[in-house]
Amino acid sequence: MSRHSRLQRQVLSLYRDLLRAGRGKPGAEARVRAEFRQHAGLPRSDVLRIEYLYRRGRRQLQLLRSGHATAMGAFVRPRAPTEEPGGVGSQPDDGDGPRNPHDSTGAPETWPDGR
């Protein structure tokens, strides 16, 4: 078996450190494994991308170790209560948020001066 390069050893060490730091935090171990699996197919020649991901992983490790992180997850858009799993649902307008510039027909609204 060939010896690992310095960068490979650093990445493997980061992987182990992330798994250790994520113990006891819901979702952390699964997220770490999924992230590493997702990028496992990167070509060894793509050193810039590997170094970028390594630095990103080091920052995540610092956050996990800081004690402020209680869980680890992915940012996803939550599904609205009226939304079906495969489609887009409509949400009632509560008047608090920004208005849609289109009326219910999809045509642009007209301004008070008729524009």
Automatic annotation (TrEMBL):
GO terms for biological process: mitochondrial respiratory chain complex II assembly. Keywords: Chaperone, Mitochondrion. Residues 71-115 are annotated as: Disordered. Its main location: mitochondrion. The keyword Cell membrane does not apply. Residues 9-62 form the Complex 1 LYR protein domain. It comes from the Eukaryota. It holds the Pfam family Complex1_LYR. It is found in: Mitochondrion matrix. InterPro entries: Complex1_LYR_dom, Complex1_LYR_SDHAF1_LYRM8, SDHAF1. One of its GO terms (cellular component) is mitochondrial matrix. PANTHER family: SUCCINATE DEHYDROGENASE ASSEMBLY FACTOR 1, MITOCHONDRIAL (PTHR47046). Belongs to the complex I LYR family. SDHAF1 subfamily. This is Succinate dehydrogenase complex assembly factor 1.
